[in-house]
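=== Structural record ===
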Amino acid sequence: MHNSRLLATAALSLLLLLAAIEIHVANSETSAPNQSSPLIVMPEEYINYTISDIDGNLWAIIDGVYPLHVPFWSGSLPLLYPTPPGTKNISISIDETPLKWSNFTEIYPEALHVTPIGNWTMINCTIASVPEHFTLKIHYEHPVVLINGSYGFLYDLNISPYLSPSSLKSTAHFTVHMDINYTSFHVNAIAPDKTVTPINFTVTRADSTKMITFEIISEYSKPLLGDVLMTFDTSQPTSAVEFSYILVIMPVVVILTLIARMAYKRKHSDMQSKTK
């Protein structure tokens, strides 16, 4: 009970960086200096992926760059960040100065971040003295997983804490460097209500690497697209972690096929019963 109370208090007081913990942001453009929680503005974010074959296993290497504006706030700023299963080589810096981080879920096992493909653990760190303008950089690496027969990786685009009447729009710029041969690539945004929105992207070639780029624009008071799921297929099977969670969204064709099979089995069973 004591741990649960501590967790609830932390969840209310910590500012969530790209994880799904609700925070209260200022509702005016001239927030008072004594506001109870900071207003965080992030008009742009840059997410760079490199997909590589490392010793026969597929890995996603991520570098996130987040220019932030935190007006009227002079205190410390705790941050939480969700990490996919198997994440390693984590580093966080503010204006090129490294920040120490710890495993928040290790301290509070209940603190899991829900995504469309399963629950992720979270790490945390604290900026002791917050500049009004700064750039946060996060590097991490995690295994590519198998999702419904395709290779895939998810980016948790929880942008709602950064949208307000003072910050009406935020654009996420994605760049994916494919250091492997692949036969198809798909990008879908998955909303909390399981709505799937296909995302258009551009493919260019840089030396021997194909580069995939796209943007997702989020606007205040408008429905958000949700997390970004990127999947691809290869002509030659490569080792990947079999994901223990199956995406709950099933294609309509699959659902119709299952219904047809069930109907056929029921009809076949009825015919056998009548002939006995």
Summary: The radius of gyration is 22 Å.
